[in-house]
Write a structure and sequence with these properties.
four-stranded mixed beta sheet; elongated; Prot_kinase_dom; five-stranded antiparallel beta sheet; 24 helices; protein kinase activity; single chain; Protein kinase domain-containing protein; ABC1_dom; 705 residues; alpha+beta; 17 strands
């Protein structure tokens, strides 16, 4: 027989193909597990693998096995019914998974004061001594030269304090605007390079959770974890029944107890803040509960598998997004088996162009479906050899309410317009303010911050600058930030941190513009249509430059469609309640038509040789129209702007004259015919007025010699 020893790699799940089998395990002594008939290490017998016949193109000319999740994932390519049955069995195995219950945690640790005090002293001693060292370094002028040492100490402190502080370190590891590079490098190890727990415990957990022996599941499995994170560690294995290479995540033993006490202490601190810190008006305990609830969800691996399946259904339709499949037959509350993904971490320099893909996908998550990945640190994002962005670890997910999704887009529109009164009103829809709060005093605070911050354009704003500025406003007034908002900020700040790692001048708002522009131009939702009208019309005039900018930015989004941008606008224009908009459009159509006619007259007149130009209308030699050169230039620029907007629509990939057919059908409605008549009437009146002005004006005096 042949035996297999698989080399380890990083949690990028990219350690490459399984190496050749070797005949001996490494010389690592492990005690025999008492419940096993024979001692078992990470090496298992390698028997001939029976490969399932279903295959698919891997994108590089070869064929790979269709994983269990091609239709949902049961491990072997079963039917949908089999998939559902396998998932039901996995749920049954996870029936005892921990659930966050703050009352139960308070009751448990309220009866253990000595344990609570001991843990509190442990945390205060570790963090306090580290803070004292930093203070002394700064005072003695050796802060810079000790950065590397202090960064290593901080990583060791977070690791020693356990999973709660590991998650804190993971968040800091993606913020180059907060931490020096030496700290970023050290703290990044907290993403997937933590101390492991004994492999015997992990293998025992797999057998206990799945109810079968290890060698009946895998033909090979790595002898040690390929990665270790805050809540579990990952092994690379090959399924015995299909030959599929999978990642097997096993939960750390005693993890619930490890995080339960910390969250009890943090929750108690939140209660003190709510009671005694007046300038923080949000419910801190509610924010903590939301975060802890998501962490406890991470402790149920069946829930994580269901999250992955939902995420894949919503977002994996994009050619540059990859979501691994789940194998339900080999999944339980503490064991998760998913498709192995080859790739490298997203914080490696050569693949940082995919960060923008991550931002665009996150915008879709937040603002289209509202279901988003709340923990996108580099250990959970991979760049695959095919150039795709792979999402991993779906334990921490959250949702944005539908009303809030549209309000966020509207808030961006109001920010672009510097409409601070409307921005203040948005906080009602976002549930940041209760309906009885008067927003009148909030408007000057918003104006003071943004007028100072928006020296150039909104796109030049750093996301952290925006968050800090709004945070300063929130502290001054009775804002109550919803719990989901904190997770949105976490997700976007982590992604911006990744981008800043590649480009210190990166602006996440600028990268988000194409998506916002596309949504405004193409989404038929009434709220967004109203936001678009608000953006394009100001003081009774249509802002063509703003439309040009929206089209330029929107066309950068791969999903932009000129067809979708045109038809919803016309439907809104001709709706029964669109009289006010029709009035504005008639007025603007008159301006456009007049500009086209007048510039055509001027261009025609200028094309005539000077000696042949007849004395036109009352013998005026200045030109055919009573207009100064500045007026002609202004009208010509206006006409050119309109032409450019039309050109942007024409250059869209899906533009086709046939697309105008639905528009023609709409224009045959009675409202449209009336609209056309009003435009013609307006143009006729303005041209007649200009003609009369030209006829009646006094000819210039003839100079005397």
């Amino acid at each position: 027989m042949m035996m297999s020893l698989v080399s380890t790699g990083g949690h990028s799940l990219a350690s490459g193909p399984l190496p050749n089998f070797r005949t001996k395990p490494p010389q690592r002594r492990r005690p025999a597990l008492p419940y096993l008939k024979t001692p078992r290490a990470a090496i298992v017998e390698s028997r001939p693998v029976r490969v399932a016949p279903a295959t698919r193109d891997n994108g590089s000319g070869g064929l790979v096995l269709v994983s269990a999740g091609a239709a949902g994932g049961v491990g072997g390519g079963g039917s949908r019914a089999e998939d559902m049955q396998a998932e039901a069995r996995a749920m049954a195995r996870a029936v005892d998974a921990p659930v966050f219950n703050p009352e139960l945690i308070a009751s448990k640790y309220g009866r253990r004061p000595i344990e609570v005090v001991r843990r509190m002293l442990e945390i205060l001693t570790a963090i306090g001594s580290f803070g004292l060292k930093l203070w002394l370094d700064e005072r003695n002028g050796v802060f810079d030269q000790n950065k590397k040492v202090r960064a290593t100490e901080l990583r060791q402190i977070f690791t020693r304090l356990g999973p709660t502080f590991v998650k804190l370190g993971q968040g800091l590891s993606t913020r180059p605007d907060i931490c020096p590079p030496e700290f970023l490098e050290e703290l990044s190890e907290l993403q997937d390079d933590l101390p492991t727990f004994p492999d015997e415990e992990a293998f025992a957990c797999i057998e206990r959770e799945l109810g079968v022996s290890l060698d009946s599941i895998y033909s090979t499995i790595t002898p040690s974890p390929v990665a270790a994170a805050s809540l579990g560690q990952v092994y690379k294995a090959k399924l015995k029944n299909s030959g599929q290479t999978v990642a097997v995540k096993v939960q750390r033993p005693g993890i619930e107890k490890a995080i339960g006490l910390d969250f009890y202490l943090i929750r108690g601190l939140g209660g003190l803040i709510n009671k005694y810190v007046d300038f923080i008006t949000s419910d801190v305990v509610a924010l903590i509960d939301e975060f802890v609830f998501r962490v406890y969800q991470e402790l149920n691996y069946v829930q994580e598998g269901q999250n992955a399946r939902r995420f894949k259904k919503l977002y994996a339709d994009k050619e540059d997004i990859m979501v691994p499949d789940i194998f339900w037959e080999y999944t339980s509350g503490k064991v998760l088996t998913m498709e192995w993904v080859e790739g490298v971490k997203l914080n490696q320099q050569e693949v940082l162009d995919l960060v923008n893909t991550g931002i665009q996908c996150s915008l879709r998550q937040l603002l289209e479906y509202g279901y988003f990945h709340a923990d996108p640190h580099p250990g959970n994002l991979l760049a695959t050899p095919e150039g795709k962005l792979a999402f991993l670890d779906f334990g921490m997910m959250s949702e944005t309410p539908e009303e809030a999704r549209f309000a966020i887009i509207g808030h961006v529109v109001h920010l672009v317009n510097r409409d601070y009164e409307a921005m203040a009103q948005d906080y009602y829809a976002l549930k940041f303010l209760s309906p009885d709060v008067d927003v009148t005093p909030i408007v000057p605070a918003l104006q003071n911050f943004f007028d100072d911050a928006l020296n150039y354009t909104v796109s030049e704003l750093n996301f952290k600058t925006l968050v800090d500025g709004l945070g300063a406003v929130f502290y001054q007034y009775p804002f109550n930030v919803p719990a989901y908002y904190a997770l949105i900020l976490r997700s976007l700040t982590v992604l911006e941190g990744l981008a800043l790692y590649a480009d210190p001048n990166f602006k996440v708002l600028a990268a988000s513009y194409p998506y916002f522009a596309k949504r405004l131009l193409t989404d038929p939702n009434p709220y967004l249509r109203d936001a678009l009208v608000e953006l394009l019309f100001k003081d009774g005039r249509f802002r063509w430059a703003r439309l040009e900018n929206l089209l330029e930015q929107g066309s950068k989004d791969r999903d932009f469609s000129a067809k979708d941008a045109l038809q919803p606008v016309l439907k809104l224009l001709l709706a029964p309640d669109g009289e006010e908009l029709r009035r504005l459009v008639v007025k603007e159509a008159v301006y456009v038509s007049e500009a086209v006619v007048l510039t055509s007259v001027v261009d025609t007149y200028n094309s005539i040789p000077t000696v042949l130009r007849p004395p036109i209308l009352n013998g005026n030699g200045r030109g055919p129209l009573p207009m100064t050169d500045a007026e002609v230039l202004r009208i010509r620029e206006f006409r050119d702007l309109v032409v450019r907007v039309w050109g942007l629509l024409q250059t869209s990939e899906d533009f086709d004259p046939a697309l105008l057919q639905p528009i023609l059908q709409v224009l045959q409605q009675p409202e449209a015919r009336s609209l056309g008549g009003r435009v013609i009437g307006g143009v006729t009146q303005r041209l007649a007025a200009r003609l009369l002005q030209q006829v009646l004006r006094t000819p210039p005096p003839v100079p005397t010699s």
